[in-house]
Amino acid sequence: MHRFEGHEWAVVLGGSSGFGLATASVLAEHGMNLCLVHRDRRGALARIEPEFEKLRGYGVEVRTFNTDALAADKRGEILDSLAEALGENGRVRVLLHSIAFGNLKLVAPERRRDGSERARSALAASLGIDEAKLSEAADALLAEGHDALVGIATPPVYSDKNFLEAEDFSNTIHAMGTSLLDWTQDLLARGQFAEDARVFGLTSEGNTVAWKGYAAVAAAKVALESVARSIAVELAPYGVRCNVIQAGVTETPALAAIPGSGHLKAQARARNPFGRLTTPRDVARVIYLLSCDEAAWINGEVIRVDGGEHVSGVTG
């Protein structure tokens, strides 16, 4: 197993939960120092600070910044502080962009097809029970992991008043897409990248399929992939490799924010050859592997980490 040298650092954007925290943990286990940028309310810090202490328990240096990773002035302040930590010999080996901040609205009012409602009504009538009670039971059991009930559970509810506008797209594309370039350019300009640096973004299957309410985030993911390809080509002469990880459906705070996330999870488990969701640690381990010397010739790729979910036609 590869162990990183004491002067090597990872900058993790979105490092307090989900993919960011899991990746920080795996990298720290292997000796990498951490600069973690996150944006959390004061009330959440009681949960987060113990996680950061666990990271320090691996004997690495951990610097944390609870601030807006998207603000240019804050980015400058963080990199100034990081310069102190790096000293003369320290360099950034890994940059992970794991910012999940986007608008989850429909593009138009939903006109629902009522196939599942008819099926639920017919089943309730056939059993001689109240339809509302059947829905309540199906919803509760679906939440417990009884995925076969997804067809009769209550469908996701979306706002019938607020729809995506140009500003929603602009903010989401910058936050979850093009801001990767901001950080990459600044680290390069400051000479803080290692000679063999690795830059990572995170995408999802929503880059090619349409999930309701996901249009702005999907646009951001496509933008991120495009930016990552340009980084891979134009920064290669500086020793920077850039790849994007496409995770399967994963239990994270970002997934929980998506309307109908329970349905997405049920469908993913049904498709996945291993019958389970992807975990943040599954993804973190792949990022660790791609950060090792042996992965130096992998550049400009979108790498799926989903246990075969994307190739499976099985739905039950």
Describe this structure in words.
The chain has about 325 residues and is an alpha/beta fold. The chain folds into two domains: about 10-105 and about 170-310, Rossmann fold (3-Layer(aba) Sandwich), CATH 3.40.50; about 115-150, no CATH class. It is about 45% helix and about 15% strand. Strands 3-2-1-4-5-6-7 form a seven-stranded parallel beta sheet, with helices on both faces. Strand 1, helix 1 (about 20-30) and strand 2 (about 35-40) form a beta-alpha-beta unit. Helix 1 (about 20-30) packs parallel to helix 2, helix 1 (about 20-30) crosses helix 10 and helix 6 runs parallel beside helix 7 (about 215-235). It is elongated. About 40% of the residues are buried. The mean pLDDT is about 90.
Strand order of the largest sheet: 3-2-1-4-5-6-7
- The amount of helix comes to 40-55%
Number of extended strands: 7
Strand content: 5-15%
Low-confidence runs of at least 5 consecutive residues: none
